[in-house]
Every structure is written in C-alpha cells, then in structure tokens.
Specification:
about 350 residues; alpha+beta; D-amino Acid Aminotransferase, Chain A, domain 1; D-amino Acid Aminotransferase, Chain A, domain 2; 2 domains; globular; binds pyridoxal-5'-phosphate; binds 2-OXO-4-methylpentanoic acid
Length: about 350
C-alpha cells in the first residue's frame, strides 16, 4: 500500500487523479451501514436517484497534509463534518455523524498514503466527501436511500500561480438567494456558477465575485472561496451573510489574524463601494488556500489593491502562518489537527 507513485508533485494543478481506494457507506432502512474501502471509482446508482434530478446531494472538501517528519494529518475535519450535517438538514438527507465522517477521511488518507504529497512540494491530498440521494424515486421528495462516499486526489494550487495575485470581475449573476441554499454546500450552487465563471475567464479574470442578491451592494463570495480584506489600519475584515458558505479557512484565519498576528478582526457587511478601504485583499478556502487578489473589476473600472504582481505583506504572513499550522510546523490551536 505504501509503494511509491511516480508523480511530479510540484507541477500538480487542481485536477482529478484517480487513487487506489475510496470509502463508501450506504443508508438503508433508516441507518448507515458500517462502510468500507473499495477500489472501483464508479458508482452504480438508479437512473431515478434524487441526486440526479432534484439536486439532493452535497459535498465537502478538506485536505491531508504530510508533515516534515512524514506523518499525515487532517485540518479540522470535524468542522467539515458539522457543515455537511447542516447541509444535509437543509435538503432532508440523513446526517453523517462526525465520528463516522472523520473515520472515513482517515481511512481514505491512510489507504492512499502513497498519494499524499511529500512535505515541501506545495501539493496536498484533497479529500472530497459527498452524500447523494439514490434509489427509485420519481416525485419531488427525499430519497429513502443514500450513499456517503469519500474519495481523494493529490492536488496543487486551485488558482494558477498559487501565491501570485489574480484578478476577478464582479458578475451580474447571483450565486444564492436570500434564505436559499447559499450557506449549504449543495451542487446546485456550483451548477449556477459555471456560466459566470466561464464568462469571467473569457474576459481574462481568474473567476468572478458574487454580490449579495438582495441589494447587490455587498461582497458575498469570490468564486468558490470567501473574501477577506486588510484595511489601511491593519484590520482583517471578511463579509458576514446568511447566504455565504461558512468557510472553515476563513474562520481559521479570523483566529490566526487575532491570536497569532495580533490583528483586530471584523466579520461584517463589506460593500463593493468600499474597496478603497483595503490595502490588500484575498480569497480563502480549502482549495484556494489563500489566493491574493490583485484587482477587482467593477462597473468597467479596475480597482487594484497592493499589486497585481506581488503578494502584500499581511496576506503573505497570514498564508505562511496558516500553512505552518496545517503542515505541523507551527503549533495549532487545540483541536485543529487530526493525525491519520
Ligand atoms: N465558498 C465556497 C462557495 C466554496 O465552495 C468554498 C469551498 O469549500 C469556500 C467558500 C471555502 O470554504 P472552506 O474554507 O471551508 O474550504
Ligand atoms: C473547496 O475549497 O474545498 C471547494 O469546495 C472549492 C471548489 C473546489 C468547489
């Protein structure tokens, strides 16, 4: 199981690479079965599965890191479990208990140990848990059967260039409705984002920024990541909204900024008209880690933060501290690291 694989870790991007094992568990007759590791990466499901028709499905994303001493560790998987439970409640799917979720992630990372990139390569093992409604259902109602799957893939940076700043535009499309499913990690939110993403890329941007759907004045999300800005007087500011996906990276950065870097932090409305307040800005998420935002185009005008070519000093410090914690080089707050 631990034989070596030939992978050029440094040149990995955020793409699917098939690994040897995935975990699968089935919900039937009101309970989850024990779950097991399997080799087949294809799912065999009914054509009438609710996941295929009515969007009764959700996913999570977290990473396994190789430390300097060669150990493997997960970053806050209990938070992903809790978020998936919230999502499952929102779309009437059975919750996966935290212990089962974390155990499945551990099993998958361990079984695919040879795909966990070496320390220092910048690459990580991305874990993708998902729950889908399956079985024979025709009307719009919750399924009676579900699958909980965790697969993984070694990955590099989500946005090309890693710590090089990238630019975003502001889309006219909305990502989520007020009181909709924006705070849940359901696939429907991402289906709707494919077109605005394509339009942003074709216009020369890395991705687009979504404003709040009610007033279209406040920043909600940066593609599939949360936004943060550093004010001219060194405050870490990030939007609060009921329709934003509550990013585990963002909440980790709020703590890091406050406790490790001694910054004042604010989670509040961030207006698209107040970009001048920020000397630096970034996108944060599991896949995105921290991606510095060079500039944001809004209503035909480009607003540049620190620089479009160089990462700002505060963003750099946040990135280094976050990575040091995730890789085991710096002491983590209690309960953040789960050894595999
Ligand atoms: N926002 C969206 C829409 C996302 O898909 C993600 C990724 O999970 C995030 C934010 C960042 O969340 P996290 O830091 O928990 O990965
Ligand atoms: C993540 O950061 O884990 C995400 O889910 C973002 C994206 C790959 C969908």
């Amino acid at each position: 199981m631990s034989a070596k694989v030939e992978i050029d870790w440094g040149s990995l991007s955020f793409e699917y690479k098939k690994t040897d094992y995935r975990y699968i568990s089935r919900w039937e007759n009101g309970k989850w079965d024990e779950g097991k590791l399997i080799e087949d990466n294809k799912l065999h499901i009914s054509e009438s599965s609710t996941a295929l028709h009515y969007g009764q499905q959700c996913f999570e994303g977290l990473k396994a890191y190789r430390t300097k001493s060669g150990d493997i560790q997960l970053f806050r998987p209990d938070m992903n479990a809790a978020r998936m439970q919230n999502t499952c409640r929102r779309i009437l799917m059975p919750e996966v208990p935290t212990e089962k979720f974390v155990d499945a992630c551990r099993q998958v990372a361990k079984a695919n140990e040879k795909y966990v990139p070496p320390y220092g390569t910048g690459a990580t093992l991305y874990l993708r848990p998902l729950v889908i409604g399956v079985g024979d259902v025709l009307g719009v109602k919750p399924a009676d059967e579900y699958l909980f799957v965790v697969f993984c893939s070694p990955v590099g940076p989500y946005f090309k260039g890693g710590m090089t700043p990238v630019n975003f535009n502001v889309t006219d499309y909305d990502r989520a409705a007020p009181n909709g499913t924006g705070a849940a990690k359901v696939g429907g939110n991402y289906g709707g984002s494919l077109l605005p993403h394509k339009m942003a890329v074709e216009a020369g941007f890395a991705d687009c920024i979504y404003l709040d759907p009610a007033s279209r004045t406040k920043i909600e999300e940066v593609g599939a990541a949360n936004f943060f800005g550093i004010t001219r007087d060194d405050k870490f500011v990030t939007p609060y909204s009921e329709s934003i996906l509550p990013s585990i990276t963002k909440y980790s950065l709020l703590k890091i900024a406050e406790d490790y870097l001694g910054m004042e932090v604010q989670e509040r409305d961030v207006y698209i008209d107040e970009l001048d307040e920020f000397k630096e800005a970034g996108a944060c998420g599991t896949a995105a880690v921290i991606t510095p935002i060079g500039g944001i185009e809004y209503k035909g005008k480009m607003h540049v933060f620190h620089s479009t070519t160089e990462v700002g000093p505060v963003t750099k410090k946040l990135y280094e501290t976050l990575c040091a914690i995730q890789l085991g080089d710096a002491e983590a707050p209690e309960g953040w690291i789960f050894k595999v």
